[in-house]
Write the structure tokens for this entry.
Amino acid sequence: MEAQPHAVAPADSPPLGTLPVQPLLTAEFDADPGAVYRRLRSMYGPVAPVGLMGVPVWLVLDYREVLEVLKNESQWRRDVRYWRARAQGELPPGWPLLAGYEVRQTMFMDDEEHRAARRTHHAALRPFQDAKSPEGWELRAAVARYADELVALLAAESGRTGFADLGAQYTRPLLLMVTAKLFGCPVELGDELVMDLWRMLDGGPDSGPATGRALAAFTRLAAHRRARPGDDLTSYMMLADPDLTDEQLGRELFMNAVYLNDITGNMVLNTLLEVLRGNATVRRSLSAGQLGETVNRAALANPPVANMCFRFAARDVPLGRFWIRAGDIVSPSSAAAHQDLLAIGSSHMVGSTVSTRAHLGWGAGAHQCPSAARELGGLIVTTAVGRVFDHFIRAELTLPCDQLPWRSGPVVRGLRVLPVRYELSADAAALRTPDARRTPSASPSASHRDENRTRGLLASLRRLMFGGKQDR
Ligand code: HEM
């Protein structure tokens, strides 16, 4: 049988490069991306041409079209080599987003290579998300302990009542401590990692060199753990795929670190915000089940991965009102898709518990967040949020919701700060910082080593939190 020829874009359909585009990353987008999505939708329909740092990109806005792009993996490819403008040397020199896309790891692979890489992630992550395994139990206990230590640190530094930024003084250090524990980072590497991840996550002119340094740090971590394997994700990834070189493993850890720090951290902050802006009864009655639902609501209102990573068209295809040509770049926007979902489904889809799960906060299709990673991310978010409401008798936003500063990048949207006026419970004020728990020991046990590592990290985090201001 003869193969069916694929459709070709009609000659009168406008190619992406010929369309006038509006830059996406403007001050308006920073303050109110919803208004920008609405305007683009009214001008162009479900798919709009936009400028991303000087490069034209198709932004996919409507829920149905976003799902199509996420789920149809044979049409929408992840490998950057499918991108025609890159292959033909048409990108502006030093285009700032290319450095990240050139880091070849799971997210930017297709087909069997991609499926094999996901199996490695699954196998290595599984023990940590399983509460019944020793690793899972220990990680759960560590997340809660780190949260308590940060609250204790806040009480020691700022008192039982006062003002705090739950981003800089709680969420970001917590996630960095969890990363150090999960990845098995020794203290020397921990200090370096903390500084470079924050520089890298800040973006801007130094992000290229910071990405290079972070990659080098994760490669060194891989080499370190190869020489001294432990009960950590780095060692388990090597066990799951013994063929991984230190460089390959370093790239995978680098990507996981971004999800674990920036994305999971933003999910914690967005969920805290969802609770803080809710009424007092909602807050008091937070049980584990309701917390899960609050996370879903936060993901629907403000998905941390607001615009998902680029896909590249394998063939010419109609999408929305346009023809997308083979090799064109598209960015599926989960934030815009949620806006569309809320608009079309306000009467019957989003009012119930089931419907909030229709969010695309975890992605969809072949590249969606691996289930073991989702479980782990969910566990960290609910523990981090739950601990705040266990320890704080009172926590009120010190800024009106519409004045909170957001950081809206090409992919991530997250709160820069989450300022609160707080009052801690008497029990919370009596929590001990790691410094207060120093236990002399001639031969360091695993838990003692863990405490030392935490102390080392806390020392550097303290410098970042209370020494120099980090504006992200
Ligand atoms: C609440 C926290 C998290 C959220 C909201 C989240 C969200 C996402 C999303 C939206 C994607 C798909 C991106 C796309 O298709 O362009 C993704 C992929 C991924 N996530 Fe997560 N994630 C979270 C936590 C984590 C954690 C903790 C890890 C690992 C430690 C992780 C590892 C991954 C990996 C490896 C992928 C790539 C999968 C692939 O390309 O096949 N994520 N995540």
Q: What stands out?
A: The chain has two domains: 1-102+309-359, 104-301+361-472. The CA atoms of residues 150 and 170 lie 6 Å apart. The longest strand covers residues 47-52. The domain at 1-102+309-359 is CATH 3.30.43.20 (Uridine Diphospho-n-acetylenolpyruvylglucosamine Reductase; domain 2).
